[in-house]
Design a protein that fits this description.
Length: 181
């Protein structure tokens, strides 16, 4: 009976160690090589901007007449005073002042513009404005850039596909992970 018990314990211990060893191999990772059958580059079109160092300089000048606002201000002031006097005893005293100022300002502006356009120098000054500009631009170019590779390979008689960043060469490295299903 003692022999039978010892034998039984020996078998249990062996089966536990074999089972533990089998679990270790079932969840292990190892590397193999697959034969590359076809490699196709994957392209992306990108825009590249480069500064242009051949800059162009433009210069221009323009004459213009600087017109004073004095006739408009004087017209608005006179019109406001007249509007205030006309509607002084009415409830529309403020509205009359405002309306008079607007009408007077328009009339004063019109008189100043007509006087200026007849060639008289009514506080208008002829001035010249100079403007210079340098145009430096960018040259754009569309370029096709390889962003990866579509790889077809064979492993253990089966065909597989993968996408890689680098060209794999004749053989592709495979990471094999065995797990219990």
């Amino acid at each position: 009976m003692k022999v039978l018990l010892n034998t039984f314990l020996a078998l249990v211990i062996c089966s536990i160690s074999v089972s533990a060893n089998a679990d270790h191999k079932r969840n292990s990772v190892f590397y193999k090589k697959g034969k590359v059958i076809e490699v196709t580059p994957i392209y992306k079109t990108v825009t590249i901007k480069r500064p242009v160092y051949d800059c162009k300089h433009y210069s221009s000048s323009r004459n213009y007449h600087h017109k004073d606002a004095l006739p408009t201000v004087i017209g608005a002031t006179i019109g406001g005073v007249i509007g205030h006097k006309i509607f002084k005893k009415s409830r529309l005293k403020h509205a009359g002042t405002i309306a008079g100022a607007i009408v007077g300002g328009v009339i004063g502006n019109d008189i100043g513009t007509r006087h200026h356009s007849k060639g008289h120098k009514s506080n208008g000054h002829k001035k010249s404005r100079h403007h210079s500009q340098t145009n430096c631009g960018y040259e754009t170019e569309l370029v096709r850039k390889i962003v990866g590779y579509h790889v077809t390979y064979r492993y253990q008689g089966e065909l597989f596909t993968a996408r890689t960043i680098n060209h794999p060469g004749k053989r592709i490295k495979l990471k094999i992970k065995v797990e219990v299903a």
